[in-house]
Design a protein that fits this description.
single chain, alpha/beta, Rossmann fold, five-stranded parallel beta sheet, 35% strand, binds adenosine monophosphate
Length: 171
């Protein structure tokens, strides 16, 4: 399937999780095996060839990241909400389109010099991806960029990022 065909499966849910937010629901892509496989391949094509590890953001980023990692031969590192990872972590607090939150990564998930690419479903304000960049940099990794399914261009989240951003769909 093409990215346009995949995009047509995304459902926009008004006022979720709170008033004023147009939530992009990508679950219909996951429910369609052909669309999910095509999307994983399309995202994998955009991952920098030198990437050692993909950095996946909870929780839809996990689903995309796991599928894409299988296609590009990268390891997968999970970035999670506080208190979910069992071993020693590093933490960053960030602004979200709807509220604030913190994210954690295992301290030994990356080693200095690891080359990483961040993956997620939606880039809105860019606060989440920018926090993940900081986590990676604190562990000494080199961030090659981010690959995001949908970028909400009007919010200019990419301006918060220190490294190149690829979005498959701009809305
Ligand atoms: P932000 O930090 O504002 O760029 O928000 C990005 C994170 O919040 C991503 O992990 C998205 O999954 C989620 N998110 C933010 N806005 C939306 C939206 N309009 N629809 C779906 N997910 C969103």
């Amino acid at each position: 399937m093409t990215i346009d065909q995949i995009n047509r499966l995304v459902l926009t849910v008004p006022d979720f999780p709170k008033k004023g937010i147009s939530f992009k629901d990508i679950t219909p892509i996951l429910e369609n095996s052909e669309a999910f496989l095509s999307l994983a391949k399309l995202m994998a094509e955009r991952i920098h060839k030198n990437t050692d590890k993909l950095i996946a953001i909870e929780s839809r980023g996990f689903i995309l990241g796991a599928a894409v990692a299988q296609h590009c031969g990268c390891g997968l590192v999970l970035v999670r909400k506080p208190g979910k990872l069992p071993r020693e972590t590093v933490r960053e607090t960030y602004d979200l389109e709807y509220g604030t939150d913190s994210l954690e990564m295992h301290k030994n998930a990356l080693k200095p010099g690891d080359r990483v690419t961040i993956i997620d479903d939606v880039l809105a304000t860019g606060g989440t991806a920018a926090a993940v960049e900081k986590l990676c940099l604190r562990l000494g990794a080199q961030v090659l960029g981010s690959v995001i399914l949908m970028e909400i261009e009007a919010l200019n989240g990419r301006a918060k990022l220190q490294n190149p951003l690829v979005s498959l769909i701009a809305i």
